[in-house]
Amino acid sequence: MQRRFLFLLLVVTIGIALLLAGLFLDMSPVVAQSGMPTPDRLAQPTLPVDPSQADQGAQVYWLSCLPCHGDRGQGLTEEFKKTYPEEDQNCWNSGCHGERPYESGFTLPKVIPPVIGTGTLQKFPNALVLRSYIFATMPWWRPASLTEEETWQVTAFLLRENNLWPAGEELTETNSAMILVAAPTAVATPQPSLSTVPSWTPPLFLILIIAGFILMLLIFLRRPKS
Structural domain tally of the chain? Predict the structure, then answer.
C-alpha cells in the first residue's frame, strides 16, 4: 500500500514538473508565411495626398540619409548592409569609399550612428541645434548641400519618428528651440538598498526543487526492504 502511494505521488510530481516547464517555454504561435512579396526596404517612400513637413522630410531622408543611417534610422548595421546589392555591401574598400576612394568618391566612415530609436540624437539639446547641425554638415559626402527647407523637413521627420514632434505641425526657427531632443539630465536620488536578486529565476528554482524531490523518491523506491 505504501509503495502504491509513493508511486502515485511520483507520477503527480512529474506531472507538476512538466506543467511548470511547459509554462515557461516559448509558446508563441508560429506565424504562417502569407505569400506576400517582401517589401523593398530601399524603395522611395510614397507621399500622401496632402503631405506634411515630416512627410516631405521622409523623402529627403530616403535620398540623402538612408544610404548611411539605414532604412529605419538604425545606422550602418551589418543587417542593413545586406539589403544592398552584394557588390555594394563593403563600399568602404579601397577604390570605392575607403582610404583611397575613386576620383569623385569620398571616404565612408565604418561606424555610422543610428538616428531613430531610444537613446539616439542625445548630443543635441533641442531641435534648433539638430537642424543647424544637419544644415552645416550633412549629408556626409556633400556637406551643406541641402536647402534650408529640406533641412527643416528632414528634422521634422526625425522628430516625428522619435515621437518628439506632432506629425502635422510645422517646424520653424521660432518653435524648434523649445523642442527638447536630448533627455534632461536627472539628479540621482539616494534609494534604500534592495535585497540581492538570486542568480536564477524562480521558475528554474521550483523545477530544481521538484527534480530533487523526484530523485529522493526514486532512491527510496529502489532501496531494498529490510
Answer: 1
Q: What is the pLDDT along the chain (226 residues), one digit of tens a residue?
A: 555 655 555 555 665 655 555 555 544 444 444 456 677 888 999 999 999 999 999 999 999 999 889 999 999 898 988 888 777 777 766 566 666 666 666 777 778 999 999 999 999 999 999 999 999 999 988 899 999 999 999 999 999 999 999 878 899 999 999 999 998 776 666 666 655 555 555 566 667 777 777 777 777 666 666 5
Could you list the residue range(s) of the whole structural domain that residue 93 is in?
A: 77-111
Contact criterion met (CB below 8 Å) for 112 and 100: no
Sign of the torsion angle spanned by Cα atoms 98, 120, 47, 138: negative
Side-chain half-sphere CA neighbours of 40 within 13 A = 8
In a domain, 199, yes or no: no
* Global confidence as pTM: 0.64
Residues 6+ apart with CB under 8 A from 100: 94
